[in-house]
Amino acid sequence: MSFKSDAANLSSVKTGLEDLAERILAVGDSYADGADEDLAVRLYEVERNLLSAGRRLGAILKELDER
Q: What is the DSSP letter of 34?
């Protein structure tokens, strides 16, 4: 595979991660003020991890673009 096709695939994955993070955040927010606040905290952790993975992919995409 070429860098260009790899970058396109990874870019799609990055977009998917960002979408998942938004959706998980929305679910977490729905639990934040209730008796299940502990669930919200764990969902927020998942959201942070997804955003971190997206940032890492962004850095890789930048590196691929420079090659």
A: S
Q: Which DSSP helix (H) or strand (E) runs through 32? A: none
Q: Structural domain tally of the chain? A: 1
Task: Give CA–CA dist 19/47, Å, rounded.
Answer: 10
Mind listing the pLDDT tens digit for each residue in 2-52?
A: 778 899 999 999 999 999 999 999 999 999 999 999 999 999 999 999 999
CA gap 47, 29 in Å, rounded: 11
Parent domain of 24: 3-66
Mean pLDDT of 57-64: 94
Q: Are 45 and 25 in contact (CB under 8 A)?
A: no
H or E segment and range at residue 5: helix 3-31
